[in-house]
Write a structure and sequence with these properties.
The complex is a heterodimer. Helices cover 0% and strands 58% of the residues of chain A. Chain A contains no helices and eleven strands. In chain A, strands 2, 4, 5, 6, 9, 10 and 11 form a seven-stranded mixed β-sheet that branches. Chain A has a four-stranded antiparallel β-sheet with strand order 1-3-8-7, with no helix packed on it. In chain B, the strands form two sheets. In chain B, strands 2, 4, 5, 9, 10 and 11 form a six-stranded mixed β-sheet that branches. A five-stranded antiparallel β-sheet of chain B has the order 1-3-8-7-6, with no helix packed on it. Chain B is mainly β. Chain B is built from no helices and eleven strands. The chains are: A mainly beta, B mainly beta. The A-B interface holds A 31, 33, 35, 40-45, 48-50, 56, 58-59, 90, 94, 97-98, 101-108 and B 1, 6, 32, 34, 42-46, 49, 51, 89, 91, 93, 95-107.
Chain lengths: 114, 114
């Protein structure tokens, strides 16, 4: 499981409320990612991080922000949740781009925005 | 940016038969092509991957082939078993200093009938 945990695992929230999802890893990997999974779309990259305080946008970043203040934690925030952000969110780490390229996923967070 | 198309969207095979899933990608600079298996309610699991400097890779009953000229790659599963039933995703990325930003296909539902 590459030492990845996500919290919470399930969350129901109301439209307009802020939500923060946490990804925690125990193996000191430099690269971390947030994806969302929706039927018919596979997984789509939201944001990624290539080091502490180093983050950038993915293909579906609108409405999301991230922070990484320490190596082991990568936080995804929905500033004002909308129903279109109902999804399953997966965090991932990659081992060593350029060397080993494997990317491993956390268990996921199922978010429902009502 | 990169675009990955995956076919078929569903595939039913008889136990013991072979299954083939095909993906095409658009960015000739992509150099890493993983395949993931996802069971219902679980995280995507990496099953095999291939780099652009390799044409074929095999691991027991699964194999992946890559045709860089045509920009397509395929997953081959031989001697299918009921436990192979799952959703399979292909992905492509250009691995670099800033990480391994995967672009996924929409997925293939594989059903193995016993």
């Amino acid at each position: 499981d590459a030492g990845i945990t996500q919290s919470p695992r399930h969350k129901v929230t109301e439209t307009g409320t802020p939500v923060t999802l946490r990804c925690h890893q125990t193996e000191n990997h430099r690269y971390m990612y947030w994806y969302r999974q929706d039927p018919g779309h596979g997984l789509r990259l939201i944001h990624y991080s290539y080091g502490v305080k180093d983050t950038d946008k993915g293909e579906v970043s609108d409405g999301y922000s991230v922070s990484r203040s320490k190596t082991e934690d990568f936080l995804l925030t929905l500033e004002s949740a909308t129903s279109s952000q109902t999804s399953v969110y997966f965090c991932a780490i990659s081992v060593k781009p350029g060397g080993r390229n494997e990317q491993y996923f956390g268990p996921g967070t199922r978010l429902t925005v009502t | 940016g990169e675009n990955v198309e995956q076919h078929p969207s569903t595939l039913s095979v008889q136990e013991g038969d072979s299954a083939v899933i095909k993906c095409t990608y658009s960015d000739s600079a992509s150099n890493y092509f993983p395949w993931y298996k996802q069971e219902l309610g679980k995280r995507p699991q990496l099953i095999i991957d291939i780099r652009s400097n390799v044409g074929e890779k095999k691991d027991q009953r699964i194999a992946v082939t890559l045709n860089k000229t045509a920009k397509h790659f395929s997953l081959h599963i031989t001697e299918t078993q009921p436990e192979d039933s799952a959703v399979y995703f292909c992905a492509a990325s250009k691995v670099g200093e800033y990480g391994n930003k995967l672009v996924f296909g929409a997925g293939t539902i594989l059903r193995v009938k016993s």
